[in-house]
Amino acid sequence: MVSTTERHRHGASGSRRGRRGSAGRRRRPPASRHTTGDVVRGIVRTIGEVLLTVGLLMLFYASYEVYGGQWETEREQQELAQGLEEAWAAEAAAEEDTEPGPESEPLPGSADSRLYLPSLDLDWVVVNGTTPSDILNSPGHYTDYGSEPGAVGNYAVAAHRTPGLFWDIDQLEDGDVMVLEDAENFYTYRVFEEQTVLPGDVWVIEPDPFDDATDEAPERSLITLTTCAPKLNNTHRLIVWAELAETTPKSDGMPEEIAHMAPEAEEE
Fold first, then answer.
1. Domains of the chain
2. b or e along 71-82 (b: 16 or more beta carbons within 10 Å of the residue's beta carbon)?
3. pLDDT digit string (tens) for 220-230?
4. Nearest CA to 87 among 127, 136, 60?
5. How many angstroms separate the Cα of 224 from the Cα of each of 8, 97, 188, 227?
6. Which of 140, 179, 237, 242 has the lowest tally of Cβ within 10 angstroms?
7. Reduced to 3 states, what is the DSSP secondary structure of residue 141?
């Protein structure tokens, strides 16, 4: 026979076990259901991430195309400058020792002169020739008419519209100075005209582009810069002309306009 007290104890214990058992079970979360909207949003998000990545890659590539080549240009210009100085020194020594011989045609890609644009704080070694390989990292001298620095005629120069080359020549203004240097002299030219023309307008590099009677000998000493226009495009050509104003023998030192661009001044 079970006493009332024991029945109460057993009942309470069972009740507690029942409550614990009920509380110990966890309900399973309802199965997730992907709606059509969720799928569409996921696809759109993935496409957006892919487009963003592609856009960044294209931006990096475009930046390299515009600015990456400037380092290669600077490196090649340093090599050309050293070679040009050595060639001028050898030329001067040969003239002192022997009688000058017949002049030969300039070799394509060989250094010919140095060009200074002091208002843009830029200078380059100019090579002979304007083929793609000639002007890859340097301005190139048109050799069609056999012009020389400082001589009567038109010393025409072409370069790519890239940073480090003719990127900013549209900033040249009337009266700005260009200086050409050869083995013996500095030739100071002053800008007097700028035009944008079509690629087929080859008259711009003729001995006297402003004289319709092209069969007559030129009377002016000009320098012409040509490059693509607008920037990052080649549908037109930007042309800048300057006329000789002064000739300075190297024995007199650099012209005042470019004195700050001398190697010793740059080191200071």
1. 64-94+109-267 (2.40.260.10)
2. eebeeebeebbe
3. 999 999 999 99
4. 127
5. 116, 35, 13, 10
6. 237
7. strand
